[in-house]
Amino acid sequence: MKRTILRQSGAAAAVLALSVTLAACGSDDESSNSAGEDTSSESEAPTSEEPAADDAGAQTFGEGCSLIPDDGAGSFNGMATEPVATAASGNPLLKTLVTAVGEAGLVDTLNSAEALTVFAPTDDAFAKIPEKDLNAVLADKELLTQILTGHVVAGQLGPDELSGELETLAGNTIEVKGSDESFTVADEEANVLCGNIPTSNATVYVIDTVLMP
Question: Which helix (DSSP H) or strand (DSSP E) does residue 8 occupy?
């Protein structure tokens, strides 16, 4: 009888010890799982060092930049996502230029180019040309193409590499003078009003005068 009681007591003690051990293991597993989940959450959290998605105008310069819309297709952020001809079509300063590019059939040519620098005359720049003369130019596709390609240079040039003699896609040479945030184009004929505007395939410098051949 005593031996039976001892056996039962020993069995009970073993069961109790096993239960405590399992409970401890379960607690450790839960802690491990919890720690794993926390680590996963931390790895998925965005870091503050990621670049902002709305800083396309951060490197632009010039008084004319204040005339660029804050948002929409014609804003710096909107233009940055489109090829240059499409980007210009949303800019309220470049309506006449966009019309001229369309008349010359250069939209696809400019949009498909790998890298360009474009000196883009404003509507006010085109308004300096007598209306009769401007209409004649718009009606002459060959002359219009020559004029427009005379505003375009191969490669995307930043302000630090803009000064000097540049060969245009029309085959002529224009000289850019200046540095930092002050530039003139073609023997100081035109001033850069807003510079270093990014598009998906070009860098744009808005100017106040049409460069005539």
Answer: helix 2-44
Q: Is 159 exposed, middle or buried (0-12, 13-18, 19+ CB in 10 A)?
A: buried
Examine residue 55 and state whether it is found in any structural domain, yes or no.
no
Strand order from edge to edge, sheet including 164-167? 152-154, 116-121, 202-207, 190-198, 182-185, 173-179, 164-167
pLDDT at position 13, please?
41
CB-count exposure of residue 34 (10 Å: 0-12, 13-18, 19+): exposed
pLDDT of residue 154: 97
Torsions phi, psi for 164 (to 5 deg) = 130, -175
Residues of the chain with pLDDT under 70: 1-53
Q: What is the CA radius of gyration of the chain?
A: 34
Is 57 part of any domain?
no
Inside any domain, residue 58: no
Tell me what pLDDT residue 20 has.
Answer: 37
Note the pLDDT of residue 45.
42
Let me know whether 101 and 174 are in one domain.
Answer: yes
CA atoms within 13 A on the CB side of 84: 32
Instruction: Determine the structural domain holding residue 6 and report its residue range.
Output: 1-50
Q: Would the pTM count as exceeding 0.85?
A: no
Q: Are residues 177 and 107 in the same domain?
A: yes
Helix (H, G, I), strand (E, B) or coil at 186: coil
* End-to-end alpha carbon distance in the chain: 121
